[in-house]
Amino acid sequence: MDKSSLEAKRILLIIGGGIAAYKCLELIRRLRERGAGVRAIMTGAAREFVTPLSVSSLTGEKVFTDLFDLTDEAEMGHIELSRDADLLVVAPATADLMARMAGGLANDLATTALLATDKPVLIAPAMNVRMWEHAATQRNITTLKRDGISFVGPNEGDMACGEFGPGRMAEPMEIVAAVEAHFGEAAFAAGQPLKGLKALVTSGPTHEPIDPVRYIANRSSGKQGHAIAAALAALGAETVLVAGPSTTPDPAGVSVHHVETANEMLAACEAALPADIAICAAAVADWRVEASADQKMKKNGEDGLHLKLKQNPDILATLSSLKGKKRPRLVVGFAAETEKVIAHATDKLKRKGCDWIVANDVSPATGIMGGDDNLVHIISAQGAEDWPRASKREVAGRLAHRIADHFKKGKSAT
Ligand code: CTP
């Protein structure tokens, strides 16, 4: 055990009202023995399961419980309470607490602190398996993940209510490991390992016009590519995102060029060169209409319509085939495959001439298509790396991390 892994870190622990609340006593001890300072807020329901006295004895601090406690407000307002922490941990995060977080409610001190904070939040859900699987909870999970909340657990197993399935709160040491991983990542990002490098990312679909009101498109959301641009920028890369039409908001700290068609996307990429890193995450339409109409096409009484399609330029292959200093040092493509994922992606790596392929398993059995998660393998000349199923944001963070390691190794080799 690293006794000082959390030295001087300030954690605001929000204890929700579930039977797993008793595990928080152990969690506080484990966090404190690693050097963290822990302050606790308890919801009204939490106080039915563990006493503020127990929590306060272990944190060595006053426990905060009431939004309208004037003494508390005079000593430390709820805004200050949440901003004073480096990380907020919610454990157990009950179905009710998660619903209130997802809805942006602030009807007690716990939810007010969560709404008022500008600090990262890690939650450890705990609830009955049917509550976990309920459509409402699943919807709230999606919202919370989109809002950037990190999750640890829940685990699968026997539950206090006698049922079996996902819903058990992660064990205290698993929560400690997630807290340590969070600070490890934060320290890594603070080191700005990609500073001085320029990254170019493509994202989203392209729209290929048929006439002024119709176009050929695909279902790409742009979520993965946008998240990658954000993750590279967070590690210090000067990042250009060439984005096809998508509803995903522009990521902060990134220079974004909006385009419609594959030809425009290629031109914007070429204009952004030179770059050290190019990541082609866009779902570029394979074909465009050879001669799109200038005016809205009218039905002409015939049964059908024949459109002549022309193949679009392959942006990934074009960037990969550039010569000399114009070629980005690392070119990464994506491959969404439904079968023989590794074999097809390895073939694509060779065909397109890129350095890595992020192979995305979208077979129906994974339930990935159109969702917020991704199940990927990283293919390079060295072979395939299997990554666990994770949110698109987590995949982006991990890819940026992997790229930083790649450039660090390259630097130390020279
Ligand atoms: N890509 C690109 N330009 C294109 C088509 C694809 O840059 N005109 C890139 C994508 O951004 C992705 C990779 O190529 O990084 C793979 O895309 P995919 O559509 O799977 O490749 P295809 O060549 O269309 O292969 P398939 O035969 O599987 O359709």
Describe the protein's topology:
Blueprint: E1 10-15, H1 23-33, E2 37-42, H2 46-49, H3 52-59, E3 63-64, H4 70-75, H5 78-83, E4 87-93, H6 95-103, H7 109-116, E5 121-125, H8 129-133, H9 135-146, E6 150-151, E7 155-158, E8 164-168, H10 172-190, E9 198-203, E10 208-211, E11 214-216, H11 223-234, E12 238-243, E13 255-258, H12 262-272, E14 277-280, E15 287-289, E16 309-311, H13 315-320, E17 330-337, H14 341-352, E18 356-361, E19 373-374, E20 376-380, E21 383-386, E22 390-391, H15 392-413
Parallel strand pairs: 1-2, 1-4, 2-3, 4-5, 5-6, 9-12, 9-14, 12-13, 14-17, 17-18
Antiparallel strand pairs: 7-8, 10-11, 15-16, 18-20, 19-22, 20-21
Helix pairs in contact: 1-3, 1-10, 6-9, 11-15
Short characterization:
The chain is 36% helix and 23% strand. The protein is an alpha/beta fold.
The total domain count is 2
Number of helices: 15
CATH A-level architecture of the largest domain: 3-Layer(aba) Sandwich
Content of β-strand? 15-25%
Folded structure, characterized:
The chain is α/β, with parallel strands linked by helices. It has 2 domains: about 10-185, Flavin prenyltransferase-like (Rossmann fold, 3-Layer(aba) Sandwich), CATH 3.40.50.1950; about 190-414, CoaB-like (Rossmann fold). The protein has helices spanning about 25-35, 45-50, 50-60, 70-75, 80-85, 95-105, 110-115, 130-135, 135-145, 170-190, 225-235, 260-270, 315-320, 340-350, 390-414; strands spanning about 10-15, 35-40, 65, 85-95, 120-125, 150, 155-160, 165-170, 200-205, 210, 215, 240-245, 255-260, 275-280, 285-290, 310, 330-335, 355-360, 375, 375-380, 385, 390. The strands form 6 sheets. Strands 13-12-9-14-17-18-20-21 form an 8-stranded mixed β-sheet, sandwiched between helices. Strands 3-2-1-4-5-6 form a 6-stranded parallel β-sheet, with helices on both faces. A hairpin with a 2-residue loop joins strand 20 (about 375-380) and strand 21 (about 385). The protein is elongated. The model has no long low-confidence stretch (mean pLDDT about 90). It binds cytidine-5'-triphosphate.
